[in-house]
Automatic annotation (TrEMBL):
The chain crosses the membrane at residues 12-36, 70-91, 103-122, 134-152, 240-259. Its main location: membrane. It is found in: Cell membrane. This is ABC transporter permease. It comes from Rhizobium lemnae. Residues 68-256 form the ABC transmembrane type-1 domain. The lineage of its organism: Bacteria, Pseudomonadati, Pseudomonadota, Alphaproteobacteria, Hyphomicrobiales. Belongs to the binding-protein-dependent transport system permease family. CysTW subfamily.
Length: 271
């Protein structure tokens, strides 16, 4: 009796998990299907036919390339800034002790915990009060606020797992601070930084809410997609671009997962 009950419970859990995954991922599969539909003005189901012409149409539209270029530039620069600031903040919090350390840690991670609309309104108000015109750099500043958090979370966890004896041994052997960072600390945190950078790039690349409040008249790729859905022109082209966004954001996240899943193997972590 107990065995049959446990088997039925296990089947119920598997069924619930399968339904949950289907609910999450079937809409994404529909995006891929509608990228090949032959219908231009509506989303009929089933599609009346299939064609790959929309990929050529998307390739030849300059507004898509402008939005894509802007998104890649913003994500790249925001990620680079986040890597520097997030690593420095993580090193300060993890390797030193000072008054208010936990408060500083909370303030660093707060932007990603707040609703995006709150962050966006706060940034827009700050830029308006400072008479700062909305531009390419205001978008980067907005994205950096949450990109820093991703890098910080990855880096601080790795810093805390590095044995202090490694750093002490490096100093005892005559290495200065820069040499210790280059030869001892950096090899141990490199995968965490790379994973954090990839996640930050993915988050920045498909960000909508904060960008809406900080972009002014410029359009990143997600903003372009939102505008196309409101005022559609060649609907399948939007789905083609959505496919690109899914792939561009999925690959860094997948790579980050494989880089950090063996994080237990840290030099000196068991000593």
């Amino acid at each position: 009796m107990r065995s049959s009950h446990s088997q039925s419970s296990g089947f119920g859990l598997k069924l619930a998990a399968g339904l949950g995954l289907a609910f999450l991922h079937l809409p994404i599969l529909l995006i891929f299907v509608y990228a090949f539909t032959a219908e231009e003005k509506s989303f009929q189901w089933p599609p009346p036919g299939f064609t790959a012409k929309w990929f050529a149409v998307a390739w030849n539209r300059p507004d898509i390339w402008e939005a894509l270029t802007l998104s890649v530039k913003v994500a790249s620069i925001a990620t680079a800034i986040a890597l520097v600031l997030g690593t420095l903040a993580a090193a300060a919090v993890a390797r030193t002790r000072f008054f208010g350390r936990e408060v500083v840690s909370l303030l660093v991670i707060l932007p990603i915990a707040l609703p995006g609309i709150v962050t966006g309104i706060a940034l827009r108000s700050a830029f308006s009060m400072g008479d700062i015109p909305f531009s390419f750099w205001t978008i980067i500043l907005g994205h950096t606020t949450f990109c820093v958090v991703v890098v910080y979370n990855n880096a601080v966890a790795r810093f805390r797992r590095i044995s202090g004896s490694l750093i002490e041994a490096s100093m005892d052997l005559g290495a200065d601070g820069l040499q210790t960072f280059r030869h001892v600390i950096l090899p141990n945190i490199a995968t965490a930084l790379l994973a954090g950078g990839m996640l930050a790039f993915a988050l920045s690349f498909d960000e909508v809410i904060v960008t809406t409040f900080t972009a002014g008249q410029q359009s990143t790729l997600p903003i372009w997609m939102l505008e196309e859905l409101i005022r559609p022109r060649q609907r399948p082209v939007t789905n083609v671009v959505a496919m690109v966004v899914v792939i561009v954001t999925f690959l860094p996240i997948l790579a980050a997962y494989y880089m950090t899943r063996d994080a237990d193997q840290i030099a000196g972590s068991g000593k």
